[in-house]
């Protein structure tokens, strides 16, 4: 056999090196738009007699909570969901965390309250 590199082997080797270089240098996908926000100073707990503000277009109909996530069912529309926890607060853009009225947000700990846009805060304790 010929001791020199066959041109086909050289091309295959170059393609493999290029492929692995692409895998290791491509940018990693970003996490959903979730940011930490400061807690509100004092937000009164909503009551059955408290009407929703005029700019409140969504309403939380169901909440399911795990240790490190919260799942919401929402009617209407909302652009962002604020989740309050003892470890920090999270703001999530609704198109990034769900669709069709069902949303799932990862949290650093159990949620204590949740809020849609500028709607009243829903206390979970």
Report on the architecture of this protein:
The chain has 125 residues and is of the alpha+beta class. It has one domain (34-123). The protein has two helices and nine strands. The protein has helices spanning 7-25, 94-97, and strands at 34-37, 58-65, 69-76, 80-85, 88-93, 98-99, 102-106, 111-116, 122-123. Strand 8 (111-116) and strand 9 form a beta hairpin. The radius of gyration is 24 Å and the shape is elongated. The N and C termini lie far apart (78 Å). The model is unreliable at 31-35 and 39-49 (pLDDT under 50). It comes from Meiothermus taiwanensis WR-220. This is Membrane protein insertase YidC. The chain crosses the membrane at residues 6-24. Keywords: Membrane, Transmembrane, Transmembrane helix.
């Amino acid at each position: 056999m010929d001791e020199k590199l066959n041109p086909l082997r050289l091309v295959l080797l170059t393609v493999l090196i290029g492929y692995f270089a692409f895998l290791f240098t491509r940018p990693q996908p970003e996490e959903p738009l979730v940011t930490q926000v400061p807690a509100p100073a004092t937000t009164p707990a909503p009551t059955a007699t408290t009407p929703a503000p005029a700019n409140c277009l969504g309403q939380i109909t169901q909440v399911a909570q795990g240790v490190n996530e919260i799942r919401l069912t929402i009617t209407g529309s909302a652009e962002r969901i604020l989740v309050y926890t003892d470890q920090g607060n999270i703001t999530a853009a609704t198109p990034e965390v769900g669709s069709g009225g069902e949303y799932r947000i990862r949290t650093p700990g159990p949620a204590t309250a949740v809020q849609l846009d500028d709607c009243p805060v829903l206390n979970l304790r």
